[in-house]
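Q: Start with the shorter request: fold the first protein.
A: Done. Sequence, then structure:
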Amino acid sequence: MIYIAALYAVVSVITYITYVVDKKAAIKNRRRVSEKSLHLLALAGGWPGALLAQQRWRHKTQKTSFRVFFWLTVIANLACLVGFVLYPYGG
């Protein structure tokens, strides 16, 4: 379990930083991080960091389609986590 928590922490920090980089790029009209990349990071376990960044930086909070897909990635990630914890060896 400690490894899972560590993985979530590391991926969340990476995701948070990615959101900040994207927010700054948006402000400066520079090349942005793709929404697909942000969703993949959330799906990989970085959704806590994404949620914090969304709230702290007010980033990606207005686009409804992004938010809906984001919450679907959270649900998918948690479903996989529950499956892994309850059935660690496929049994």
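Q: Next, the second protein, separately.
A: Sequence, then structure:
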Amino acid sequence: MESASELVEFPLLLTPIDSHYRACTIPYRFPSDNPRKPTPTEISWIDLFLNSIPSFKRRAESDASVPDAAAKAEKFAQRYADILEDLKKDPESHGGPPDCILLCRLREQVLRELGFRDIFKKVKDEENAKAISLFENVVQLNDAIEDEGKRLENLVRGIFAGNIFDLGSAQLAEVFSKDGMSFLASCQNLVPRPWVIDDLDTFKMKWSRKPWKKVVIFVDNSGADIILGIMPFARELLRRGSQVVLAANELPSINDVTCSELVEIISKLKDEQEQLVGVSTSNLLIANSGNDLPVIDLTRVSQELAYLASDADLVILEGMGRGIETNLYAQFKCDSLKIGMVKHPEVAQFLGGRLYDCVFKYNEVSS
């Protein structure tokens, strides 16, 4: 169910002969580990995906577009649980050894085989509508901050607050289904700086020099994440003269925004003059990343994105899946920023931080 066109390597990925790119950030196993026996790290990640099955099953049961959804959701839960238990017995089964990319791919395969195309469609549509109604107010609050550095920090906090809307995290999915989430309250309640990785001050210095001509942003979730987090930030880049490419998934996965959904969202955010609250969108491009998972392997992106990104001078990977669980240590030929919130205890432990800690990892490439 991956992209119909041939996928290629992301052109700005730095892959020198002596430094092989690995998409997955956390080492699940080492060459010395027994290939027939799961490692403690593999077990903990398999358990994390096992724990998420009930929330995925509930979403699948309520998918009105699928006939016999309840029975098929039960099949999904059983089949995916069996696959995960198989991986505990033999890590090389099902295309293993397991890592977050394989575990996500196997889950999507089971859902799609049973006819589930987009089990989060309803909640995505609801959250997009809510966030669209708040967009102008959030932008005006940002615009009212005169100090450039403080305005940037407020925009960054908005990205973190929006990124909380993540239904791939079992804990957050539970909270969300009970209470919903307030974007502005989330902005105020972020864990205090310094964050577990905190290069914001260095980024601010570069930002103040207005350096980037073209920025590629790999976007994450629907709702508050894309509309109240990323779009105000992208608008600020546009206002400062950057061309901005937003790269979104080709196919649905969890509550990640897809390329076609993003086109529709932006058309609703623009006014009759094709502006985002007074800022022209002539330099805003939307690209299909070719991806169909909540994580991404940058050796497999669409040719469209590769073409549009080839001359970018800043790459941003946003969200836990794309910027932390995968690609945190990826190196690029241009400046790069990995930004996201830590929403799994296993990731927090690996990074030596707190649950709901923030990652702002900026790498500047000297010209």
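Q: Describe the second briefly.
A: The chain has two domains: 40-113, 121-363. The chain has a mean pLDDT of 92.
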